Amino acid sequence: MSQYLILLYEDESFYANASPQVLDEVMQAHNRFAGQVTELGAKILGGNALQPTGTATTIRDDVVTDGPFIESKEALGGYYLIEANDLDQALAVAKLCPANGGGVEVRPIMVFD
Amino acid sequence: MLAATVRVAGGSGGIALAEDCAQDAFVSALEAWQRNGIPSNPGAWLTTAARRRALDAYRRGRLLDSKLPELALQHTMQDNLQLPMQDDGFGDDRLRLIFTCCHPALAREAQVALTLRLVCGLSTADIARQFLVSEATMAARVTRAKKKIAGARIPYRVPGPAELADRLDAVLTVIHLVFSTGHAAPSGDLLVRPDLVDRAIELARLLVSLMPDEREAQGLLALMLVIDARRSSRADPDGELVLLAEQDRSSWDRTLIAEGDRILTGALRGGRPGRFVLQAAIAAVHSAALRYDQTDWPQIVGLYDLLWQRWPSPVVQLNRAVAIAMRDGPRAGLAALDEIDPGVLTGYHYLPAARADLLRRLGRNVEAAEQYRLALTSVGNAAERRFLERRLAEVS
Fold this sequence. Notes:
By secondary structure, chain A is of the alpha+beta class. Chain A has a single domain, classed as Dimeric alpha+beta barrel (Alpha-Beta Plaits, 2-Layer Sandwich). Helix content of chain A is 32%, strand content 35%. In chain A, strands 2-5-1-6 form a 4-stranded antiparallel sheet, with helices on one face. In chain A, helix 2 runs antiparallel to helix 3 (87-96). The model of chain A has no long low-confidence stretch (mean pLDDT 93). By secondary structure, chain B is mainly alpha-helical. Chain B is built from 19 helices and no strands. Chain B has helices spanning 2-9, 15-36, 42-59, 75-79, 93-101, 108-118, 124-130, 135-152, 161-183, 194-210, 215-228, 254-268, 275-288, 297-310, 314-328, 330-338, 350-361, 365-378, 382-395. The termini of chain B are far apart. The model of chain B is unreliable at 62-91 (pLDDT under 50). Chain A binds chain B through residues 1-2, 85-88, 91, 106, 108, 111, 113, and chain B through 72-73, 75-76, 103, 105, 151-155, 157.
């Protein structure tokens, strides 16, 4: 078993303009996702939605600035830490992960011996 | 042999170990054969010896040696202590390895490079030549791919039924490239490397039998059979290149051509042909002509037009331009060659060679000589080099 981080990149305007009903649907989608992960035989170890990039602060060379580290069209909006057998299973999980108007990155966790 | 050893050595993390064991096996094979003579089935001897070495190394815990090259230790190596040599339905270790090497998590160029390196054992230099990049670039590409497999834990297995069709295009591309390398070897003295050609055809046959509804796999097999049918006529007894125009067609293997035609006919049914089926069709039109001057060039140009739509590669543009020259004359061919973006085929000697040939036919010898010289700076195969040198002498 290995751990992977799934990073969710999404269109922030989707959330900014979303009605409570739409937000509720997103919540439902993530709940369904959790069930699907279990069915696949993988495990969610943790995860969170992040507040939008407007709330981000970056520090580089001791200089504090407003905003995310990398400006991009799709913003980092959340993550899941999962446990999976191998990359194929991690990808199967990631494909099910709801990411509105964007996509996900799958990164293996570094193992230190 | 490497693929079978990879299974024993513990999947994706064991590739480096497997390569070491394969090398060891070759060395001890040479020693044993010098003493005892070559066994009747050298391939089997090598596989057994390499597997035994991998198991020994595994049990001695050599895998825990921190001096192991770049691949990180994988937990599954401890899990898979007793790897079963199960028949997973494919029946060929090399196919398992090729599907793993062609995993979508690897960039396409990495898939091809890794498969050619690990499955077919091509040198990094040869692969680099095929892809018009430097050897250092290619070596780095292979190393990165291995690190990706190990770091992200790409599993060493055949894809499940749901993913199989998606994984096929990359595999077909790789097999075709192996064939091309064997059919017109990028380096060395021999024009043809029969072992690579045979291996590519063998892999394609396997694919077709396992995926009988995949028309592109059929197209690839048909293409290779029809082209390989010409093998014995492409070089003369001294190893010199013989052009398609001058090949002794009576020596073409008509059984292979017939088989290729039969497979192609089946593949052409049922929908829009893909790029391999179209290439096979072009080869079949050539093979149908009993003499070069009976070649149906208009049909070939038409097929290249379709192929260009399906696969906008500059190599297709080049081949199409040559066909246009045959249909409409050298001037039209040169105009078609000029449409190719000059930057994309740098180092691809067939482009200046084609240009030189058309210029030569027009009697523009000074320009032709310049193009032949240009081609000679990037040709890698000795037989092709000698051919170009002869042509250069003719126009100088």
